[in-house]
Amino acid sequence: MHEFSICSLLIKALDHEYDAIQPPPTGLKSVTVMVGELHQIVPDYLLGAFTALTADTRYEGAELKLEFTAITGSCSACEWQGTIQPPLFVCPSCDQVGVDLITGKELFLQSLEVKT
Amino acid sequence: MTTQEIKVYRDLMGANEEWAAKTRDLLAEKDIYMLNLIGSPGAGKTALLEGLGAQLGEKVRFAVLEGDVETTNDAVRIAKLGVPVSQLLSGGSCHLEAKMVHHALLDMDLDALDMVVVENVGNMVCPAEFDIGEHIKIAVLSIPEGDDKPQKYPLLFHESNAAILTKVDLLPHIPFDIEACKGHIKKINAQIPIFEVCALKGDGLAELIAWLSDRAGA
Prior knowledge:
The complex is a heterodimer of chains A (116) and B (218).
Chain A: H1 2-19, E1 27-36, H2 43-54, E2 63-69, E3 72-74, E4 81-83, E5 100-103, E6 107-115
Parallel strand pairs in A: 1-2
Antiparallel strand pairs in A: 1-6, 3-4, 3-5
Helix pairs in contact in A: 1-2
Chain B: E1 3-11, H1 14-30, E2 33-39, H2 45-59, E3 62-68, H3 73-79, E4 85-89, H4 98-106, E5 115-119, E6 136-142, H5 149-152, H6 154-159, E7 162-166, H7 178-188, E8 194-196, H8 205-215
Parallel strand pairs in B: 2-5, 2-6, 3-4, 3-5, 6-7, 7-8
Helix pairs in contact in B: 1-4, 2-8
């Protein structure tokens, strides 16, 4: 259930960005978060946490949109590059252990859509 | 009503990372080495600390931060060893966060310590995500949990700098292929040492104590 903690961090980040918008918006329509698949986030849990944590706040009713990024990496031994399937840290081309991750660990507040 | 889209790209872990960075600065100033022990509930993390207690204490001056969802049971166990201990209650959360750990450290007599061992909340997923400012993470896996756990929770073993297999005295009684398990760990993280211990009987603890003392610069 790290989704609830991650959602709390999202709302803190959202507060920071929302308060900086000039002129102040009249409401929040949607928020988009980029999530790397390595975080093993269950979308329904995160959406449920967002609904619960924004109830009775200025963000109530806003939509949370999730954009997942695949786990990709490159191999220093054979120069392979691509999407990594389990086993996650083994090069599918040459079997070397220790593929360097390129994407998959993202956890970003990407954009807001505000009502003006 | 009109709407406006605003691009931001703000890292959600940013607030946690700021506290973790403060902790790293504090530990550097006080010359303290901090470990983050991560494993499932019942993996034997507290029993491991009880086993390490007296012998590790002869080499390094260490304190324990006990993370749990509820109760002070584990802190009571550690206090019996004469080791300084604080209990952190996560109140339902499945992991410790950096801010909580930082404030707990500020309440300790840091000038009297060489090492702090944080026993994270029992869980193999969430604690691997949250940096608490530690120098290294250590994965703790017990024999009854099964030899395929590294494959099921690869992020933990990828982020860890050592793995400890506990309750090895149960190997004759449980279908657990220890070589296969070590192979799974090596396929995720080829470099890390893997220790095999039985904390109750003391088996394997000397090697672990030597490694930990070395890492702490004792």
